[in-house]
């Protein structure tokens, strides 16, 4: 919790995407979440106005960039741009933009000619509008930090997810195994396995030559018979890859399959797919609103709070303390 002198120097604002999360962050920090004016004109254009003066203050803006009940992902991005611009024009001392989930981060390179690097375009847009610092959680590619000419803090939910998994393992280490759903998550899966003191296995995947949207896994994977398999990923979008991997594990004799990820984007038809009995349990942090997911998946979905991680990180930023110690260096992996 921030000290009283620092509280008076901070202005915490939330976009319309995930105010519930912002309220939890505010409570953790001991600051007031302001009730700023956000509306949409009949034309579809967004409007934003700070309810109180931000002159000379450190403005913290909370906005996940994702499609939600308040609009599309691009609505969320435009709303964030307006919030940054309003703070800069109102003489804020410093503007920190907190995106628990940051859209477009998977588009971090040119795969073919004549296409954009969308991650770079978004980051440049935020900086040119007036953001002094960016903060995000478990970015798809942490190297995109290099695009921003200034502090870009990469937080990780590894600790809170690992804590939840450790409680589930409860000393029965030989009964559990971490499974990497693809090569891109191999290193992270190995870190989880090392910290949880359980085995790790890797599952190769490839895209269908005729339809690149179709993911293919092997028909069988060894070493998982009779075990509870834990699939680790940074995000779940349409859930095709993760559910396909779960089906392979069940066919290979796995007792249960637990899926754990930081971000639940859950684009259609993700919820329908995740109701597949091959997935026994789904663990997600609440960096993205999960109200609809909880209704659809009921007790299968376990929601892990992200507010304590984000709030403690913002306290360190405002107090000019180190984030490296807070995450024990894991946020640089």
How does this structure look, described?
With 333 residues, this protein is of the alpha/beta class. The chain has two domains: 4-157 and 307-332, Rossmann fold (3-Layer(aba) Sandwich), CATH 3.40.50; 158-304, 3-Layer(aba) Sandwich (Rossmann fold). 32% of the residues lie in helices and 22% in strands. The chain is built from eleven helices and 15 strands. The strands form four sheets. The protein has a six-stranded parallel sheet with strand order 9-8-12-13-14-15, with helices on both faces. Helix 3 (73-89) links the parallel strand 4 (58-62) and strand 5. The longest helix has 17 residues, at 73-89. The model has no long low-confidence stretch (mean pLDDT 94).
Task: Throw out a few tags for this protein.
five-stranded parallel sheet; single chain; globular; Rossmann fold; alpha/beta; 333 residues
Number of helices: 11
The beta-strand count equals 15
Mean pLDDT across every amino acid position:
94
CATH fold descriptor of the largest domain? Rossmann fold
């Amino acid at each position: 919790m921030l000290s009283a002198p620092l509280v008076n120097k901070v202005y915490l604002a939330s976009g319309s995407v995930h105010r519930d999360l912002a309220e939890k962050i505010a409570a953790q920090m001991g600051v007031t979440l302001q009730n700023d004016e956000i509306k949409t004109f009949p034309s579809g254009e967004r409007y934003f106005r700070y309810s109180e003066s931000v002159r000379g203050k450190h403005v913290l803006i909370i906005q996940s960039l994702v499609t939600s009940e308040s609009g599309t992902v691009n609505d969320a991005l435009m709303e964030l741009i307006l919030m940054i611009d309003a703070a800069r024009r109102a003489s804020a001392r410093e503007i920190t933009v907190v995106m628990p989930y940051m859209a477009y981060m998977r588009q971090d390179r040119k795969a073919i000619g004549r296409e954009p690097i969308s991650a770079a375009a978004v980051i440049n847009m935020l900086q040119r509008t007036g953001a002094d610092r960016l903060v995000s959680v478990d970015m798809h590619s942490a190297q995109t930090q290099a695009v921003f000419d200034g502090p870009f803090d990469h937080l990780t939910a590894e600790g809170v997810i690992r804590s939840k998994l450790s409680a589930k393992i409860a000393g029965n280490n030989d009964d559990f195994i971490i499974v990497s759903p693809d090569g891109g998550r191999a290193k992270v899966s190995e870190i989880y396995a090392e910290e949880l003191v359980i085995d790790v296995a890797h599952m190769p995947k490839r895209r269908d030559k005729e339809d690149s949207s179709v993911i293919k896994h092997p028909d069988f994977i060894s070493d998982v018979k009779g075990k509870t398999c834990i699939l680790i990923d940074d995000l779940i979008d349409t859930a095709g890859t993760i559910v396909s991997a779960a089906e392979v594990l069940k066919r290979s004799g796995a007792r249960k399959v637990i899926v754990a990820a930081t971000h639940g984007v859950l684009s259609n038809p993700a919820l329908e797919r995740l109701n597949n009995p091959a997935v026994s349990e789904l663990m997600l942090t609440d960096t993205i609103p999960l109200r609809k997911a909880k209704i659809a998946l009921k007790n299968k979905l376990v929601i892990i709070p992200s507010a304590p991680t984000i709030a403690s990180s913002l306290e360190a930023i405002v107090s000019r303390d180190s984030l490296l110690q807070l995450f024990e260096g894991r946020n640089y992996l």
